[in-house]
Amino acid sequence: MARVVRFHRHGGPKVLGIETVNVPLPAKGEVQIRIRALGLNRAEALLRSGSYIETAQFPSGLGLEAAGLVEAVGKGVAGFAPGDAVSIVPPTSMVRWPAYAELATFPAELVVKHPPDLSFETAAALWMQYLTAYGALVDIAGLLRGDVVAITAASSSVGLAAIQIANRIGAVPVALSRTSAKRRALLDAGAAYVVASDEEDIAARLAEIAGSNGVRVVLDAVGGPAFEPLTAAMAPRGILIEYGGLSPEPTPFPLFNVLTKSLVLRGYLVHEIVRDPMRLGRAKAFILDGVADDTLKPIIARTFKFEDIVEAHRFLESNTQFGKIVVTV
């Protein structure tokens, strides 16, 4: 028996509840983990509210990131033993493999022995943000030294991971945030420049920063009206990678900018990296190397207790956090 977080209907954070359930032994090819820490993601709030790409099956669990100790291994699993410290690459289905629990089971190929000097809190904050940013910037865009990359929602965990990855490569990360309130924190986190999108002319400011070369890569989680000024500042044959849709406003198609500059607008989900063993292997190597050389360091905004999962989700939806929200179990 173990405690798990589940919800029986869509709604706000208060629909989440902690229940005690029977957890079966791991099946063939699976690893069961005694969870010590969870990383929270906006995708979980979307599933809970009924607006995610996956459909909840009530009563539904949720959660995409966790770290803890191996409890048991299923048949056919090699390389893991009870007591190993591990963390979880986000599964393609959190309904099938939910992480919000004291005891949870995952496919062995998604379990990683993280560096032993990492705390469980840090390990639980690792994979979603860096896999998402790596997949967009390195795997798809082929970010190079000297490239100017514009990063929207820059104070999110993925935004901060993108800043660190850009710096590791030698690119120039430009952080976009709605206001200037987080300017100093973003600069301290490694942004070369900060643009306050509600206070400044986005296109003019990006053109000033990037000069005649323009912005070659845009990593956008927002959509909405900013598409027009973002693409206006892009370099010829630049690429805009869209991985979210935070704006409630319609997203215009910037036809003139796309045609005259031969731009690429690319939709992206981290699942395409997770589903491809070769791409996932390269991503894991890059991220673990970055953790080892201290160029990739998760920033944790706040830590909550497992019993305070409702409050943690309220904080997640406040949009005031800077970095990752972690829950300890």
From TrEMBL:
It holds the Pfam family ADH_N. Gene3D superfamilies: Medium-chain alcohol dehydrogenases, catalytic domain, NAD(P)-binding Rossmann-like Domain. One of its GO terms (molecular function) is oxidoreductase activity, acting on NAD(P)H. Residues 11-327 form the Enoyl reductase (ER) domain. InterPro entries: ADH-like_C, ADH-like_N, ER, GroES-like_sf, NAD(P)-bd_dom_sf. Transmembrane segments: none annotated. Keywords: NADP, Oxidoreductase. This is NADPH:quinone reductase. It comes from Bradyrhizobium shewense. The lineage of its organism: Bacteria, Pseudomonadati, Pseudomonadota, Alphaproteobacteria, Hyphomicrobiales.
